[in-house]
Design goal:
The complex is a heterodimer of chains A (about 100) and B (about 475). By secondary structure, chain A is an all-alpha fold. In chain A, about 60% of the residues are buried. In chain B, helix 5 runs parallel beside helix 9. With about 475 residues, chain B is of the alpha/beta class. Chain B is globular. At the A-B interface, helix 1, helix 2, helix 3 and helix 4 of A face helix 1, helix 2, helix 3, helix 4 and helix 5 of B.
Chain lengths: ~100, ~475
């Protein structure tokens, strides 16, 4: 059976959305590019859902679709965290002389 | 694997991941805490994925492992080596990937359960597949425009908005029909096809200079698609993460729109930067046949030698000519002579939010030298030189007073208030909006023609020897 839609899920979504607004509005424009890279990495969480579908081994069609979804999400997770870290590593304070 | 993690254990793990994600985003408040924050988020991701793999619902591992390994292998070359100037298209590509994943899972669920689906189920799956599909093709279009595979200028034709709007209404109609009759398979797949098409059509008329808004918008859609996928699978970590991402993209796109004084509708349907209707505006802004003053590098050097404070205004032109390293070298020499050097960053300079900051950080400019528009605008009046490198529309004083100008009302950097303005420019071509920049005709403005990178290296070299 497909999953039931729970009202708690809606609660979660709305509250997390509000939390998101509060969190993101405090991030300085300086870090907006790494923020986008970071949300890309974190949005790779759809990997979890894709793993469930592939893991249930229903039939070839769902397996192949879920396989592609896993590949795409894994790229986002691994690549996203690497890129975010590469960007953040570059932000340095002025230590008198820039090297 | 006989005894996997129970549902409750799994939920506890997800809760832990959600907390780490939130702390991770909170870390981005300041460059000092950002890296640590993202490491926490990465731990959160690891916990979520590992606990899912151990869940008792997973009965087969071959497809999962193959996907994880292939995905990791594919991610490395497009993440480790990619130059910072290409980050905008890279981000757009990952929006496409994330949206495609959600879309495919939606299709898989529909395909598997189509005879048992309730109207509520179908509405969720329909929205997921529609948003996912249009974000996928839309983001691919964005990436190709930024990469230069497709022309950066808007592509328009007569009746384009009517075509797009009817397509959208058609999709909504099909979606409603599907919700009423969940078994209408043909309609489901037509909705999918139309959504792919709509994503392409949506981005076709949007020019490269508007990409900061569009990238942020697709970031938001990607997040929402993820959240809807979470609703469909009753997976709470996906709902929370999707809501956070959606909020993030939404705020960024609003900020970008505000920085251009334009509405979202205008960005999406306005085809900004079209050359056709600009003839009138140009003649309206050109008060006289005044010619801009030009300058050679040798003439420019003394200006810099006698200056005490300099504000540098970078724009997309700096990224395009890869001039950020030469710029920093020149700035270092100025600083060595105790000249104050600051950078003024307009929110929409470049091709995505924060683009200039990343490039300058890559060139080892300390972030304490970078200032947002609001922080620095009053400083221009005290600056001896404003050095504009490849920025155009964001410095155009016409935005303040020429009502007919397409950029009227856009907040700009008050470059013209500086004692002297020196503009590094490749040629006399207008900026992206297609209008002439009044700044160039001011008597305290000099144009320094040439490739920005070359000009700045020569300036740096000349300055050393003087």
């Amino acid at each position: 059976m497909p999953h039931e839609l729970g009202i708690t899920d809606l609660y979660l979504f709305i509250l997390a959305g509000f939390l998101g607004f509060q969190l993101i509005s405090r991030i300085p424009p300086l870090l907006h590019t790494p923020l986008m890279a970071a949300t890309n990495a974190i949005s790779g969480i759809s990997l979890v859902g894709s793993i469930f579908i592939a893991g249930q081994n229903y039939n070839l069609v769902t397996n192949v679709l879920a396989f592609i979804a896993i590949v795409c999400s894994t790229i986002n997770v691994v690549g996203g965290f690497i890129i975010t870290d590469r960007i953040l590593k570059m932000f340095k304070k002025d230590n008198g002389k820039s090297a | 694997m006989m005894h996997g993690l129970s549902f409750d254990t799994l939920q506890i793990c997800y809760l832990f991941s959600a907390i780490l994600f939130i702390l991770g985003i909170k870390g981005l408040n300041s460059p000092a805490t950002a890296r640590r924050g993202m490491q926490l988020a990465a731990v959160g991701m690891f916990v979520a994925v590992a606990s899912t793999l151990l869940s008792k619902e997973i009965i087969a591992y071959h497809w999962i492992m193959a996907g994880l390994i292939l995905g990791t292998l594919l991610s490395l070359p497009i993440s480790i080596g990619i130059p910072m100037t290409k980050i905008p298209q890279r981000i757009a590509l990952s929006h496409a990937g994330g949206a495609l994943a959600a879309c495919l899972i939606g299709i898989a669920e529909y395909y598997r359960y189509q005879l048992q689906l309730t109207s509520l189920n179908t509405s969720v799956i329909g929205v997921e597949v529609m948003l996912g599909a249009l974000t996928f093709t839309g983001s691919l279009m964005v990436a190709s425009k930024l990469q230069g595979i497709l022309p950066a200028r808007p592509m328009t034709y007569r009746g384009q908005n009517i075509v797009n709007i009817s397509l959208f209404i058609l999709m909504i109609g099909i979606l409603i029909y599907l919700i009423l009759t969940p078994v209408a398979t043909l309609y489901f797949y037509s909705l999918l096809a139309l959504a792919f098409l709509f994503g392409t059509f949506l981005v076709t008329p949007i020019g490269a200079a508007d990409m900061p808004v569009v990238i942020a918008l697709f970031n938001s859609y990607g997040g929402l698609t993820g959240a809807v996928m979470g609703f469909m699978l009753a997976n709470r970590i996906q709902i929370i993460t999707g809501a956070l991402d959606g909020a993030s993209g939404f705020i960024l796109s609003i900020l970008m729109c505000r920085a251009m004084n334009r509405s979202m509708t205008n960005v999406l349907f306005g085809a900004f930067g079209k050359v056709v209707d600009d003839k009138q505006t140009i003649s309206a802004t050109n008060t006289s046949d005044k010619q801009p003053q030009t300058l050679s590098i040798d003439d420019a050097l003394p200006f810099f030698e006698y200056a005490k404070s300099i504000i540098i205004v970078p724009g997309f032109g700096m990224a395009a000519s890869q001039a950020h390293h030469s710029l920093r070298e020149f700035a270092d020499k100025l600083k060595a002579k105790n000249i104050s050097v600051k950078y003024a960053i307009h929110p929409v300079a470049g091709r995505m939010p924060g683009h200039m900051n990343v490039l300058l950080a890559e060139a080892n400019v300390p972030y304490t030298d970078l200032f947002d528009m609001d922080e620095i605008n009053t400083d221009f009046a005290h600056a001896d030189i404003a050095l504009v490198v490849g920025a155009n529309d964001v410095t155009n004083p016409a935005a303040r007073h020429v009502k007919s100008s397409p950029i009227y009302g856009m907040p700009i950097l008050d470059v013209d208030k500086a004692k002297r303005v020196i503009v590094c420019k490749r040629g006399m071509s207008p900026g992206f909006s297609g209008i002439d920049n009044e700044l160039y005709l001011k008597e305290n403005t000099w144009l320094l023609f040439g490739d920005a990178k070359e000009t700045l290296s020569k300036l740096g070299y000349g300055f050393k020897h003087s």
